[in-house]
Amino acid sequence: MFLLLVVALPACKSSTIVLDGEPGGSDSATDSGLGDSGGDNDTGGPADSGDTGGDTGETGDTDIPAPLCFDAGIVVEESAALAYGANVDGYDSTAGAYGGGNIGDGAVAVNSRADCALKVGATIRGTGWVGGDPAGAYCEEYGAAVSGGVHQLAARMNGPKVEVPTGLANAGDLSVGWRESAIIDHDAHYDSIVVAFEGTLTIASTVVLVVESFDIQGGAVVVESGATAEVYMAGPVSMGWGTQANSAGTPDQLQIFVDGDDDVSVAEGATLAGWIVAPESAVSVNGTLYGAVSAETLSSGWGAWLHLDEAAICP
After folding, report:
1. Contact 157, 177 (CB under 8 A)
2. Tell me, what's the pLDDT at 45?
């Protein structure tokens, strides 16, 4: 049973909701990772799966857990559209914050061979990869600049698997209002989580969460030092203008896994430091991302910044 404590404070102050209760059992923990991971391909691209013609679902030896990592900073199955004014580069979160000497290259990989599978008007410091001949699978739009060029993949790229844990205690709905705060410090299944503008949700320990709907309406999600949140979504994820999701942490501290084809949106003016693992979803990033993405489709507009974390890439 959960105890909900609300403390009302004077106007213009914040109030705090503390969620306490028995943690979900350790049986809910699941392994997530790539199905099939191998060495670098012959063309010098991101680490490939070693399977040049297999289906997405081929995982090799299932008795050996695959690593929780990405073959490239952005892995897209069907199509990616990075518009004029969007920017892609890389950094290494293990070397500190992005900026200064910690700015490098990033890679965008689209497995599809379809015409214009990768459509770019953006500035990419790094390399683009497509499943087919770049003469057809890559379409360059006004403003496009890809420093490492666009090349054909030797093998398909993958992101981590999505394996939703079961057996977590249901905690119902969590709503964090304007200038309110709440703390999550145990595993749970939420029907919904809403964080209003200027609200703060703090992840105080390493947790596994299953969430039906996650809507951050310009509030903050703070993952404390040493904590990690694995968030398994059975519905949409929306991060509105002003959202600060783990913005002071490292991307591996906030891992968002989407089971199914629900949309993921990071709006203009929002910041996320985290992983988006949504291989069947449409993902839009129009704000700032520090981390890595896998998606069915990806779109980014003017002013978007995607700083891809080298620490998320498979060795």
Report:
1. no
2. 52
